[in-house]
Amino acid sequence: MIAVVFDSPDDAVSDICDGSTILVGGFVSAGTPSNLILALKRSGQTNLTAVANNIGLGDLLDELCEDRQLARVIATFAIRASGGRNSRFESLYRAGEVELELVPQGTLIERLRAAGAGLGGVLTRTGLGTMMQDGKQVLELDGERWLLERPLRGHVALIKAWRADRLGNLQYRLAGRNFNPVMATAADLVIAEVEEIVEPGEIPVEHVGTPALYVDRIVQCEPIAVRWDG
Amino acid sequence: MQGASPPVGLSRELIALRAARELEPGSVVNLGIGLPTLVAGFVEPTDQILFQAENGILGYAGISESAFDSDLINAGGQPVDLVAGASFFDTADSFAMIRGGHIDAAILGGLQVSAQGDLANWYVPARGGGSVGGAMDLAVGARKLIVAMAHVTREGEPRIVEVCDYPLTAERCVDVIISDLAVIDVTTSGLRLRETAPGVSIEQVVAWTAAALVVSEPVREMTL
Prior knowledge:
The complex is a heterodimer.
Chain A: E1 4-6, H1 9-13, E2 21-24, H2 34-43, E3 48-52, E4 70-75, H3 88-94, E5 99-102, H4 105-116, E6 122-124, E7 138-141, E8 144-149, E9 154-165, E10 170-171, H5 180-183, E11 187-198, E12 217-220
Parallel strand pairs in A: 1-12, 2-3, 2-9, 3-4, 4-5, 9-11, 11-12
Antiparallel strand pairs in A: 6-8, 7-8, 9-10
Chain B: H1 12-21, E1 28-31, E2 50-53, E3 57-63, E4 80-88, H2 91-99, E5 105-108, E6 112-114, E7 119-120, H3 135-141, E8 145-149, E9 160-161, E10 176-179, E11 182-187, E12 190-196, H4 202-207, E13 213-214, E14 220-221
Parallel strand pairs in B: 1-2, 1-5, 5-8, 6-9, 8-10, 12-13, 12-14
Antiparallel strand pairs in B: 2-3, 3-4, 6-7, 10-11, 11-12
Helix pairs in contact in B: 2-3
């Protein structure tokens, strides 16, 4: 299906259900759908599972902790080893009010990719002999040991691109790609925040980063700049 | 070494400079968060080293002083400049590069390194939770793993130990340790002391290392 253009980020997220698993694209400040995240905050859904590279690194995902909308977070960066400023997420985590599943970055992206590509799992060396191995199956194939990682799918993906055309083809800018193209393949409902919506054909065909078939909703928003100062 | 203080060795900047000297011209290198990010400032353009960042850049230069662009950051969230010939890609491609053996060297920070080259660098038990990022993938996938870290904790505990008691990043992954006191190679016959920092003696390095050190070949003083 081709995408539907929504007028506001609030309209685009209004029918997300409580208890949903939400994939959130972006890497710290780059390619992060901050308008959609804030719309989700205003919309007030609860008991959500958020899957994202990071939470509490100057990102607005941390805002969803203000009204305790997150029950569970699956991420690669969550609690800073060096201490220092605490995030809202960290406070809730320490109070036992939100669960955390920490996943190596390369494993997180491959679990998402497997879900989006119709694969049953991924075999990786990453995490062997560490805490990441706990509770998981280790397979030995031709004398090599591999950790079996299972697919990770979302009900909804909130992603960010630079531009979309009205069909839903997306073009990314600089390092804004990161998790977004793979998350676009791995959720039942894919909502893309973009800085500009253009007519089909205006994005040079070889610059389409996510083809339209993955994208359900697009909404044009003024980007919100976030920055992590360490 | 209770009650004593370790000798004064290299500053963080000089550790980064010494680590930069370990890189082969023309190689593809990933730098971890913290001290390793400083390494980008110590390579010569003529060395043509390409820095890869997990968030999807091949070919970034040092930290940018120009206006902040939220889409142009390294894996630590810092603004960066690009070299001519840089490219962008998504996270799946980025980790295909990392796990697939396409990264010539990674320089990561460390909390502990063991005698057999196990690395612990993502989880401080006293803090819990943790942040793993790309460290585990880099530790298993980079062709050469250099750990750049302080030799001793602020509390005076050696970070080079027989067996790590912090949770591991990966087993048997470290090739070289570069600290404020020494350069140490991880070999099949143990930890081999290669160089000492200016003004630091072999005996001092041995005293502040909680694992057996092989001191067989002539040990040089670092040239910086």
